[in-house]
Design goal:
The protein is an alpha/beta fold and 275 residues long. It contains 9 helices and 10 strands. Strands 1, 2, 3, 4, 5, 6, 7, 8, 9 and 10 form a 10-stranded mixed beta sheet that branches. The radius of gyration is 18 Å and the shape is globular. The protein starts with 10 loop residues before the first strand and ends in an 8-residue tail after the last strand.
Length: 275
């Protein structure tokens, strides 16, 4: 594993994964094939039960843009992102799920919108794919996410398809570090209070829907008790923000709770396995 990225990298892509060897190689390949060479990719294994995933990364082990890490315990993708963000120094941060695919030009189009239109958080349209990679539909996100949020819509971006200014994540404290799911929407709600949320209209991301994904599994999927409980808490917090009358009252309500679990990140040699 090489730890040094491009000297003038503009964006760090964070890709957490857990027991997703079947799709991980394609996800990593889709990021490293982007036509923005000024990127770094950080893949973090969340204590998967076996080493199958390492073999999927071996074809890319010599790429200097790739860093591979492993958590000391299973903590979930949100805590992983908070931990990785502590050492990120690029001006932009992008996200990618381990079972999805970024289409060619994704980062180029999104970074152009960030740089050209003074946007702060940029998503894109995406297609739905099944377990076998067959397209089953597509969805466009609103061009102006702030406007749609003011109209009452809460889902204006697909989190893993987004790119955000690092300064936004720093100001807002990253993601809610006390949960395993749902906090991507919470982040968008908090960000919309201070920043511009926009989306590229082109389909630039392939979003996989399959039974083991976090949003589909019985215990964590839409409609699960865990997700309903978090949605209720998130909605209550958003109501408190709406009642804030001054910026001084609002700002503490925009800062995410920090990680509530201690863990470490250990480098993994993708060419060999455990170090």
């Amino acid at each position: 594993m090489a730890t040094a990225g491009p000297a003038a990298a503009a964006v760090t892509v964070i890709l957490p994964h857990f027991d997703c060897a079947a799709y991980l190689g394609a996800a990593v390949a889709s990021v490293l094939a982007q036509d923005r060479p000024d990127l770094r990719l950080t893949v973090v294994d969340d204590c998967s039960p076996d080493e199958k995933w390492v073999a999927e990364l071996r074809p890319y082990a010599s790429d200097p843009r790739l860093t591979v890490l492993r958590t000391s315990r299973n903590v979930g993708h949100l805590r992983i992102k908070n931990k990785v963000l502590e050492s990120v120094d690029t001006p932009y941060v992008a996200f990618q799920d381990a079972d999805d695919i970024s289409l060619p030009g994704r980062l180029r189009h999104q970074l152009a919108l960030l740089e050209r239109d003074r946007a702060d958080l940029v998503g894109c349209a995406y297609s739905y794919i099944d377990e076998a990679g067959r397209t089953t539909g597509r969805r466009r996100m609103p061009r102006n996410g702030n406007l749609w949020m003011r109209l009452g819509r809460t889902t204006v971006l697909l989190h893993p398809s987004s790119v955000v200014r690092r300064s936004v994540l720093h100001t807002l404290g990253g993601f809610d570090g006390t949960v395993r799911l749902g906090a991507d929407t919470d982040f968008h709600l908090r960000a919309a209070r201070l920043y511009r949320l926009r989306s590229v209209r082109e389909v630039l991301y392939r979003y996989r829907i399959w039974p083991k994904s976090l949003t589909q599994a019985p215990g964590t999927g839409f409609g699960s008790a865990q997700r309903r409980a978090y949605t209720e808490a998130m909605t209550a917090q958003e109501q408190r923000r709406r009642r804030a009358r001054t910026r001084a009252e609002l700002m503490p309500l925009l800062i995410a709770p920090p990680n509530d679990i201690d863990f470490t990140l250990t480098p993994v040699d993708a060419g060999q396995g455990r170090r």
